[in-house]
Amino acid sequence: MGLMGLFGLFVVLVLASSSFTVPKAEAHIADFDETWQNRSAIARQVALEAYVHEPHNVTDHVNHMVHKALEGNSTRRHLGKYTGACMATNPIDRCWRCQRNWARDRKRLAKCALGFGRKTTGGLKGRFYVVTDASDESLTDPKPGTLRHAVIQDRPLWITFKHDMIIRLTEELLVNSHKTIDGRGTNVHIAYGAGITIQYQKNVIIHGLHIHDIKAGNGGMIRDSPEHYGLRTKSDGDAISIFASSFVWIDHNSMSNCMDGLIDAIMGSTAITISNNHFTNHNEVSLMGASDSFSDDKIMQVTFAFNHFGRGLIQRMPRCRWGFFHVVNNDYTHWGMYAVGGSQHPTIISQGNRYIAPTANYAKEVTKRDYASEDVWKQWTWRSEGDVMKNGAFFRESGPPSTDKYTRQDKITAKPGTFVGRLTRFAGALVCKRKSPC
Ligand SMILES: *[C@@H]1O[C@H](CO)[C@@H](O)[C@H](O)[C@H]1NC(C)=O
Ligand SMILES: *[C@@H]1O[C@H](CO)[C@@H](O)[C@H](O)[C@H]1NC(C)=O
Ligand SMILES: *[C@@H]1O[C@H](CO)[C@@H](O)[C@H](O)[C@H]1NC(C)=O
């Protein structure tokens, strides 16, 4: 499409969407028809209802559960050398892992989320859908048995895979509400093609996948539900793009080397937990809020817990705007520029992480603020509590210790960063075998 064509399209989008608060220009939707308009209005309502007015209740709950998971008999066992026996070292994993019958009890996972995405149940109420076919040929009429056919369905579904496979998505995969994509027991790679998009949807779990080498899609006609398809413009090349969506839980995935972000959440998305993932070989890891002028991102509330930010990462782990971010008990072993950053006064509560700075002297600072002078950013609440700083790493704190209007005396402190090695030990996609503990 030429420049004039793009401009024309932009005008049409603006006109078509003038009664909604969410700008559509970046939505990759060429025809913002009534179906998309309705979805956008409903998604906004869901997000407003998902917003938690006392976010510290949620951060406290995560910390409480970590304490509980590490107390008693578990602690000592985890100190020794790893023998290969199944171990669940954090409260999310302890909720479902190391059960012999896990493959017959997959939906147990749906009760295990913690943090802002804790109410995410995905396809809990649905039937199982087994993906048998790795192809992705027809985008408007996806073949039964393919991942695309599974995710566009309107009804809740718990999606698993018949065997190991590499799925190269021809264009972005548009995931509909109430889905779990569960890679456990199979070695499933979403790779070398387009990525996963969750747009104006709710209640999605993505678990146990390898997602890597994702490229931008060219756009085209793509089906997003049994009743609807439409023209999409080029996609960005994110591994997972969360767009104006709520209740999303991304757990135990291995993600690397994509064209844009590994996990981006934008346009008023909220109620998100990103946990137990292993990220490697990537520049801009996770963008939370894409626009300094989009204040609707104030409702964004995201938990990052038990992730391993590993080899070959450069920046944005995450890079935040506007919202509230609980970054707790993650292991940061590699970064090239900085780890946690942002603009537009996001609240960042960094607790019990391990930050291991790179050798380069210019990259010792964990934090980075953009587009604000010090007298402005010093008002932003960015706090570091119980973080372990290695190799000269330092976190530049700012703002008041708590965003609460009252002083919190009953606050639950996080498990300190010294426990992070244990808590993140099994980050990334797990190797699970039927009939043995996973
Ligand atoms: C959009 O919502 C309106 C009002 O609820 C409804 O009448 C209409 O049928 C919906 N259209 C589509 C395509 O879903
Ligand atoms: C937050 O926690 C306090 C103290 O436990 C409780 O009284 C209050 O109801 C909670 N608020 C919400 C919104 O859950
Ligand atoms: C002790 O270990 C058993 C077996 O793994 C587990 O079921 C139990 O919850 C643990 N107790 C505590 C307090 O961690």
TrEMBL record:
EC number: 4.2.2.2
Gene3D superfamilies: Single-stranded right-handed beta-helix, Pectin lyase-like
Cofactor: record remark: Binds 1 Ca(2+) ion. Required for its activity.
UniProt entry tagged with the keyword Calcium: yes
Keyword Calcium part of the UniProt annotation: yes
Catalytic activity, reaction form: Eliminative cleavage of (1->4)-alpha-D-galacturonan to give oligosaccharides with 4-deoxy-alpha-D-galact-4-enuronosyl groups at their non-reducing ends
Signal peptide from the UniProt entry: 1-16
Pathway: Glycan metabolism; pectin degradation; 2-dehydro-3-deoxy-D-gluconate from pectin: step 2/5
Pfam families for the chain: Pec_lyase_N (PF04431), Pectate_lyase_4 (PF00544)
Keywords attached to this entry: Calcium, Glycoprotein, Lyase, Metal-binding, Signal
GO MF annotation: an example: pectate lyase activity
GO biological process assignments: pectin catabolic process
Domain Pectate lyase residues, every copy: 164-361
Cofactor(s) of this protein: Ca(2+)
Similarity comment text for this entry: Belongs to the polysaccharide lyase 1 family.
Name of the protein this chain belongs to: Pectate lyase
Natural source organism: Amborella trichopoda
